[in-house]
Amino acid sequence: MSAQDSHVKQSPAYEMALVRVEDVVKHFPIGTGLFGGQAVRAVDGVSFEVRSGETLGLVGESGCGKSTLGRVIAQLQPATAGHVFFRDTDLVRLHGEKLRRMRQQMQMIFQDPYASLNPRMTVGDIIGEPLQNFGIARGKERERRINEVMRTCGLNPNFIRRYPHEFSGGQRQRIGIARALVLNPTFIVADEPISALDVSIQAQIVNLLEDLQDRFKLTYLFIAHDLSVVRHLSDRVAVMYLGKIVEIADSKEIYLNPLHPYTKALLSSIPIPDPDLEAQREPILLKGEIPSPVNPPTGCRFHTRCPIAQFPKCSEEEPPLEEKAAGHRAACHFAGQL
Fold it and tell me: What is the pTM of this model?
């Protein structure tokens, strides 16, 4: 077992799905006139669950729709169709004050720590704004909670009156995490929270997220394109391609026994620290470009780049996301045959 494998968390026996995503669709209409009626099919019929207390990693190439899916789950963008259940409450059907109150239990950490913080607000005001919005704490109690969450996230409370530009990228991301944590949420969507940071800082933020999860019993949807990070952090991993989930399984299982050819290609791109092993291995090179989400391929969306595609079955029949082994689902007619 490699050092990296030893970091994989062992999945506990979860009893309840905290979040259930059912047939979620998110389309963005584009163009007028000649291009009228077309849409970017960013998310196109996605179903999965996030179990209470776990970290579900969501991975895929840039443009596959994973960040859009995260925003729909957090209800920062409305779904075109489908349902998002949080503790059996359908968020898609909630509006106004009921939805606002539900958001208190669900927060989001954004990818860009430079763009997600208001440059005209002090750190204290940024972190304390959710408390004010929900009328939870005012005056000295508000300041006490801000100081407490800053310490928890590795920030010096003496910097409470400083502005975002006075902090490094890693410190800014800690501010964003503190803002998400101050309401004591149950569920956090982390949208590529380390991709904009220096490599030397990334491990610190990952360790912080793990510590916070253990301390506050948090549930994460961790969105990333770096599979090595997802391997370290996640209990289960879902792989997304062109608006669809193509494979989902326990983290250890998906790395040791990937069934979908797209997952195998992604895993083959992860560098191996051992130079001898790295020299012996042959990465799987995918042909062609990612198809347009405006006009995705018929049948299996991956068939235009798949090394094991068989015609006409793969080009005409869309494979369902179905269980191929215990707890291991894949959307492929010929799963595991690469």
Answer: 0.91
